[in-house]
Amino acid sequence: MFYFNFVTLLKRLMMYQTLTFLHSTFRWLVLLSLVYSIFRAYKGYFSDKEFSKTDNSVRHWTATIAHIQLVLGITLYSQSPIIKYFWKNFDEAKESLDLLFFGLIHIFLMLFSIVLITLGSSISKRKMTDKEKFKTMLIYFIIALVIIFIAIPWPFSPLANRPYLR
């Protein structure tokens, strides 16, 4: 019985560490894809360019990368001992900014930013003119990027901090 519990605990710990690493690493893909999408949208909008197949692919892959990160994040959230502690001891835990950040602030801001990315991608795809497509992408993706920058636990963040890579 002890062996079984130890093995189960070890597997959960390894899964949690793997998810933490993937989520931490994958954020860079999200940030890079968003910055690149914003760059292309800015350039296209102000240069009156045609919304090309490449622009459409960049829009699509930015949303896809964000959704993959969302799945990693929700899975990590459901497995995190920090989150489990937060919800079991809510009255006490809400007093800690670090616990409150990971328990509520981070997930809600990130969910909101993914909704913005999804809406921006979907709405821009349906716009009739190229200029409207670029403008929609630009607005939604910039707002999402700002929210994501606030919600990431950077090493210098006053809310909660973690290293650049885990």
Write up what this structure looks like.
The chain has 166 residues and is mostly helical. Helices cover 82% and strands 0% of the residues. It contains six helices and no strands. Helix 1 runs antiparallel to helix 2 (53-79), helix 1 packs across helix 6 (130-151) and helix 2 packs antiparallel against helix 5. It starts with a helix and ends in a 15-residue tail after the last helix. The model has no long low-confidence stretch (mean pLDDT 91).
What's the overall geometry?
elongated
- Please state the structural category: mainly alpha
Low-confidence stretches: none
Query: Mean of the pLDDT scores?
Result: 91
Helix tally? 6
Radius of gyration: 19 Å
The proportion of residues forming helix, as a percent range, comes to over 70%
Q: Give a count of the beta strands, DSSP E runs of length 2 or more.
A: 0
Distance between the termini: 33 Å
Strand content: under 5%
Main β-sheet: number of strands, strand sense, barrel status? none
- What sequence of helices (H) and strands (E) makes up the elements? HHHHHH
Characterize this entry briefly.
This protein is mainly α. It is built from six helices and no strands. The protein has helices at about 1-45, 55-80, 80-90, 90-95, 95-125, 130-150.
